[in-house]
Amino acid sequence: QGRNPLELTAADCMTSPPVTVTPEASLSECCDILEAKQIRRVPVVDHTGRCIGMVSQADIARHAPKHEAAEVLKQVSQPSVGASAIAP
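Below the sequence we write its predicted structure tokens.
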């Protein structure tokens, strides 16, 4: 903190261990993770741990019914009552 961001490396700023989901995870599970961890996207990893894609807030909103998209984004953007106990 207080350091010049142009002098930082990815290792200085990364989340470790990474928060990931498998391809079988439901969008509901993805929403729960985004909300609890207060992140905007989550990598999707295969059984070997290789990243095969990402699920973002925008992806979730695109797949939600139009009348629910705003509420979905609001839910994953704000910490839940229990999120502080879950998030590191």
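Residues 18-78 form a domain with the CBS-domain fold (CATH 3.10.580.10).
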